Amino acid sequence: MPSALLGVVFHWLGGLASGSFYVPYRGVRKWSWETYWLVGGVFSWIVCPLLLASILTKDVFGVLGSQSVSTLGWTFLFGALWGTGGLTFGLAMRYLGMSLGMGVALGYCAAFGTLLPPTIKLLFPDIPVAETITQIASTLAGQVTLLGVAVCLAGIFVAALAGATKEKEMPAEEKQKAIAEFNFKKGILVATFSGVMSACFSFGLAAGNPIAAASAAAGTSVIWSGLPKLIVVMLGGFTTNFIWCVALNFKNRTGYQYLASHVREEHAHHGGLGSGEHGSSTTASTPEGGSSDDLKIPVLANYLFSALAGTTWYFQFFFYTMGETQMGKFGFASWTLHMASIIIFSTMWGWIFHEWKGSSKKAHGLISAGIAMLILSTIIIGIGTYIKAAAGGH
Length: 394
Known about the structure:
The chain has 394 residues and is mainly alpha-helical. The protein has one domain (3-272, 291-390). The chain has helices at residues 3-20, 33-56, 60-65, 69-96, 98-120, 133-137, 140-169, 172-178, 184-198, 200-207, 209-217, 227-252, 299-325, 334-352, 361-390. Helix 7 packs antiparallel against helix 15.
């Protein structure tokens, strides 16, 4: 299989992991959002990066120890900024709803994460990006790849339009249930911030390229060489999320939940996939004065579901770094492929869980068109990277 096509496959696998990670959280009961998000995050940002890099790469700690303070510092900083994007992503869902909020935030994320690094290289030649945007656009392969990026962004826009159409058609009562705090102006501002900050993960991976090069020089297979830099990027993300979740534990008095066998009555309605900042879910409500069994926390199950969700989430970037190694000088397009595949597979789960039930033909037509455009974009980008590889530009 040509390396470019293999890269697309890896990015699709990463998108499947990202679009699916929230499913295990639906099984969490009697825990607040900040509790299960942090437990899952320990696996996402600490356990899995360290474990898999230690198993699959050579001398991982020696490689990290050999890096300059500048490389480690920038990689960590971009990871921390990305962490703020992940936190505010939940607020975008809260103000705009899942469909519209995800479409807008990921649209910004795809655009900034894909196009800014090679564009900024025009002004700062020393940043670790292979080519500038003008160099990319000067070749047939580059033009094809940029066409794929454009199709992807158009597909994200159509998917967001489908979400807006769906939510506009909802009856007032149902809309109030689904988006109790709908606020378009606030939502757009938050989604913009979330998308731009989330794109910092792409910058963090670029800043960590010297780590990947050192890992390859230490004898690691090229396909695994990106794993050590994930340790640093995700440590930055963990730092941001840890501070926020612990702050919420104190504010909401939910810190006891990590070890408690029973939940307090005021927190008994929490559990499942929450609404981002507070995670209030009605999936497991308990009446006032409920029995001891009503307040019992399924501690082992909660840890297992959270660990599974966190591990699944990590694998999006595990496959991302593998796909990136196959994209040659067009690695900048990896972020677009990643965003497109996330929307494809998260929409798939939306269909499975009947989130589009009752929508009009127009909404169904728009989401189908958006998904088709996203699939087409991955094919076009794969063709562009294949042309580059065939011309000896890998």
